Amino acid sequence: MKKSDRFVVKVGVVALVAGLLGGGIAYGGINLLQNSGVDVAVPGGSNAGGTASTSNLKVNVQTQSEKAYSAVKDSVVSVINLKKTSSSDVSSILGGKSSSKLEANSEGSGVIYKKSGNAAYIVTNNHVVSGASALQVQLSNGKQLEAQLVGTDSVTDLAVLKINGSQIKSVATFGNSDNIKVGETALAIGSPLGSTYASSLTQGIISAKKRQVPLTGSNGQSTGNTATVIQTDTAINPGNSGGPLINLAGQVIGINSMKLASDGEGTSVEGIGFAIPSNEVTSIINQLVKKGKIERPALGIRYLDLSNIAVSDQKSILKLPSSVENGVVVYNVTSGGPAAKAGLKKYDVIVSLAGKKISSQDEIKNILYSQKLGSTVSVQYYRNGHLKTGSIKLNETTSQMKITQ
């Protein structure tokens, strides 16, 4: 027998022994028991001796996760999206009238972050409240309250609700999302699959601090915007949307917003969830409370990624130098808009805005949305092969412009 063959035999024997040990005593053991002369018949008589009791020993299993959960759980609510539904019965048909009533259309989560006087304020996701005829929230104690919409922002997928705060005793606090670290423990609290599972806790880690992901609307189509979010493997399921992602200090470091369920080609994905960073959340909700909406500056142009333009057209129409590989091509300019006032024209290729290089059209939106209305930004663009510089005063909003960017 070769040395390699002997090795195979030894492994096989070990595997067999392991299998026998794992499965219990082998047939030979049963034969031995049968031949031992031991009485193995089931005893008769009363079964009173088979009763059981529990121990009074108390095990202290309190962990930092449990402390963090206890600090936040009472401020987490279920958000119920109600819609009007038409119904008809015999009496309404005979009377020529139909009645309507409110029914629960969907549910999500939210977190109470502020109490002021008799009012309490809740942050949740825009997609949780979108299309609602009315809103309710269910507190951690099961009590349901009417909720009023303060403001929404579809770009960041955030919304603020207002409720009667007379019964609210616990509010959450926000931590600094810039201070989180990849690998640190993260906890999610919410109502996965609805209020039946309200106050559910899941635990994971921070997988990435600043992940760029494309945003989609309620119809599932891309909005053309991207979001910078926290990636976590903490379980986030339908119904968790709008609930808090917290650290072990019990601070809200993000608002759970979405998860990646597949790669778009049929492959299921697990453990990739996203939360809106708390620093962005506080900035947005403060503006929503103040104005009810978010005002973002606009350029007043429509544009395409340079990568979508054929190389031959880049040379013949745009007359770009071969060294220019990234940018956006202006193909429509709103008369009298900020870009038009700055001198931009059709077929200009923007390569820099506010001092940042442009490689895709998403970056234009991200830069604009980081600017304040009324501010002035620098711009660099190519026209007929020549690099030009200028400045644009961002004094109009997306809602004021017929062309939104």
Automatic annotation (TrEMBL):
PDZ domain residues: 288-385
Source species, domain of life: Bacteria
Any Pfam family matching the protein: Trypsin_2
Xref: SUPFAM superfamilies: PDZ domain-like, Trypsin-like serine proteases
Residue spans crossing the bilayer: 7-30
CDD domains for this protein: cpPDZ_BsHtra-like
Alphabetically ordered keywords of this record: Hydrolase, Membrane, Protease, Serine protease, Transmembrane, Transmembrane helix
InterPro entries hit by this protein: Chloro_Bact_Ser_Proteases, PDZ, PDZ_sf, Peptidase_S1_PA, Peptidase_S1_PA_chymotrypsin, Peptidase_S1C
Family stated for the protein in its record: Belongs to the peptidase S1C family.
PANTHER family reported for this sequence: PEPTIDASE S12 (PTHR43343), PROTEASE DO-LIKE 8, CHLOROPLASTIC (PTHR43343:SF3)
Protein name: Trypsin-like peptidase domain-containing protein
Species of provenance: Apilactobacillus apinorum
Lineage: Bacteria, Bacillati, Bacillota, Bacilli, Lactobacillales
